[in-house]
């Protein structure tokens, strides 16, 4: 088990779903941006670093049936499985590091809220983008949410790399076209605020 996996397994083993700063009752912006990508209900959607997020619940409620959730922490995914019950049997639960994972299939939509910003080393960001390119279909779309340039410098005791749409575009490369970017002021469970940005890109090719 990697140091990153150990860290996040400990977080999810010791804290409840609503006891972490990134908790959202409803992942509104993520859902809106995924819907804006206009995937049909047969589209393959993956949530990278999904943790115990309620995004998978909402996607299943929307009628999507080819949904995967990838996270470093088995404890996080176990918590989601317990929460959503039997319908979770159709979800592909993947315990893996997005920088070393070997995708077994391709996806039409790649979503990541607050995983990419933990990659502070250029080599890790490059490895992540390599997996993204391997996993995303031509014409597929990617939504990445990170702390904005005026957001926190750390999360869960770890340093982060803050981004805006321009820095994300530079990381992804010219085959990804920026479609939209949005700002969010996230209110933590203890009512502090965090500045986020969400950017949606389309992979050129169709």
TrEMBL record:
Alphabetized UniProt keyword annotations: Methyltransferase, Transferase
GO terms, biological process: methylation
Gene Ontology molecular function terms on file: methyltransferase activity
All residue ranges annotated as the Methyltransferase domain in the record: 45-140
Pfam families, sorted: Methyltransf_25 (PF13649)
Keyword Ligase attached: no
Keyword Ribosomal protein applies: no
CDD domains from the UniProt entry: AdoMet_MTases
Signal peptide positions on this chain: none
Protein name: Class I SAM-dependent methyltransferase
Annotated organism of origin: Bradyrhizobium diversitatis
């Amino acid at each position: 088990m990697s140091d990153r996996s150990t860290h996040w397994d400990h977080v999810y083993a010791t804290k409840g779903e609503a006891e972490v700063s990134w908790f959202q009752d409803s992942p509104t912006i993520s859902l809106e941006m995924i819907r804006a990508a206009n995937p049909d209900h047969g589209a393959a959607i993956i949530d990278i670093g999904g943790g115990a997020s309620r995004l998978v619940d909402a996607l299943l409620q929307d009628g999507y049936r080819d949904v995967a959730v990838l996270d470093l922490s088995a404890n996080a995914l176990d918590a989601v499985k317990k929460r959503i019950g039997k319908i979770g049997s159709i979800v592909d639960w993947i315990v893996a590091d997005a920088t070393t994972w070997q995708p077994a299939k391709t996806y039409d939509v790649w979503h990541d809220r607050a995983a990419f910003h933990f990659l502070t080393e250029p080599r890790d960001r490059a490895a992540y983008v390599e997996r993204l390119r391997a996993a995303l279909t031509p014409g597929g779309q990617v939504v990445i949410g990170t702390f904005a340039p005026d957001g926190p410098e750390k999360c869960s005791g770890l340093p982060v790399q803050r981004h805006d749409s321009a820095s994300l575009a530079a990381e992804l490369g010219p085959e990804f076209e920026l479609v939209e970017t949005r700002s969010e002021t996230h209110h933590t469970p203890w009512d502090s605020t965090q500045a986020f940005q969400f950017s949606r890109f389309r992979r050129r090719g169709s």
